[in-house]
Design brief:
Blueprint: H1 2-9, E1 26-31, H2 36-57, H3 59-81, E2 84-88, E3 91-94, E4 97-100, E5 104-110, H4 112-121, E6 126-129, E7 137-142, E8 151-155, H5 159-169
Parallel strand pairs: 6-8
Antiparallel strand pairs: 1-2, 2-3, 3-4, 5-7, 7-8
Helix pairs in contact: 2-3
Amino acid sequence: MRALIAATSVGAVIQPTTPSKGHPPVTYRERQWVPLSWSAGLLLLACSLVVAVWAFLGTTWGLGCLVVVMVLTVGGLYAWGRTVIRVDGGRLQVGGAWVDTTWLGTASALTATQTKSALRSGRPDEWLHLRPWLSRSVRIQLHDPADRHRTWLVASRRPDELARAVNEQGPTGGGSDD
C-alpha cells in the first residue's frame, strides 16, 4: 500500500487495462502534458523577470525572486499539464469533471477550424476543457436533465480515438447499464 501511495504522489497512475474485480476496462486515456516549447518559453519569461529584479534590487532580492518564480512556474506547468482524459466502462472523466456513460450522447471529433468556430459561437450551455497548445477537440452531447451543460467541448491530441471511445461507451454503444 505504501508503494501505491508513493507512486501516485509523484504522478504515476496505475490503470487497469483488463476487467478485474471492481475495475472496469479503460478504453481511452490521454494525459495532456504541456509541450516542451511552451515550457521553455514560460521558463524564459520567468527568467527575464528574475533578471529584472536582480538588476534593479540586487543579488539578495534576485535570488529570492528566482526561488519564488521558478517554484511557481514549474508548479504551474505541472498543474496545467497533469490533466487526464479517461473513458472506462462506467464514466467519462476530464480532469476533475466526470459524467456517467448513461448520460452520454454522440461524440464527434472536430478539426482545428471547426473547434475555432465552436469557440466563436460562445454557447452558454457548453462546458469547455481547452488547452491552448491543442487545436483539435471533441464535442460530446449530454442527456442529463439535471446538468445545465448540454455539450462538452474537450481539447484532445487524439480526437478521433476519444470520440470513438465515447461513442462505444455511451448508452447506445454498449456502455454499462447500472
